[in-house]
Design a protein that fits this description.
single chain, 112 residues, mainly alpha
Length: 112
Amino acid sequence: MRLLSSSSPSFTYLTKMSFLFGSGAGAGASQNINPQAIEMAVNELDLITDVFNRLVSSCHAKCISDKYAEPDLNKGEGVCIDRCVGKFFEVNKKVGEKMQAAGGGGGAPGLM
């Protein structure tokens, strides 16, 4: 079992999504389901899915040959993917910060 650190993206995401279920709600706990919370979660999932799809498409086109000669990534492809993903998230973060500063907290479609 893998434990999440408080600095991991998964921990941050799960913390943000906790509004759906409340804190400490067990499987048997009865609570009202808030349709607005469900809609917010669906919208957030759509945004995250879009960011992931753009990331995969962009880095795949830049780093992986159209001819698959072997089943695994070679070292060069792996390094390229690592750098591409790092740059993608860094640019997404910077754009989000600029948009928040310019728009007073509007946020960027993506990882915010």
